[in-house]
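User: Can you predict the 3D structure for this chain?
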Amino acid sequence: MIELQNIDKFIESRFQRIFILKGINLRIQEGEFLTLMGPSGAGKSTLLNILGLLDEDYSGDYVFGSQSIRQMREKDRSNLHKSEFGYIFQAYHLIDELTVYENIETPLLYRKVSSSERKSIIAELLDRFNMVAKKDLFPAQLSGGQQQLVGIARAIAGRPRVLLADEPTGNLHSAQAKEIMEVFKELHQEGTTIIQATHARENADYGTRLINLVDGRIETDEKL
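Assistant: Here is the predicted structure, written as structure tokens:
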């Protein structure tokens, strides 16, 4: 499904190149639940951003399906980004001025989903995450765990094939974190490909594969 071929990401300093990622070769099959681990600065978030088409400033090749991302027109890359990927961030990135309902609706508006279908999808997600009573609240009126649940609902509203999560439980207490990971487990069982970056080994144990990054390189790659 996804193949990275000899990916390098670096910053040019005055005297040398400082590598953030170096020689990354990675193949991800559809339906995997892959975890990126490693110390701070190892390159986890950078690799996640490249996988999610949020960062195009790298060398090497990225193949999605049978398509080389490098050779795609910008419009086609943008469409791929919107149609195939969902994103969950540690800092939630909800829109403060929008209600829970409107935040979840946002990606569906981008995809020009009809009004009746939007209502159906959002109603199903609100029910799934026990958020029906909170649909008219704003992010500031929610707990951290509730905000992250809204972030997940928004990320999966468009039924992406690939869900990317960057430290999705980093700001949550243990009970909330477990709730989020159980949601990921369900999504994986439903066929969603999940790629998460985390410091928490207990989160990695929900997945099927664990990659350890050290100094921008893949140190180990193991099945779980």
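DSSP finds seven helices and ten strands in the chain. The first strand starts at residue 2 and ends at 12.
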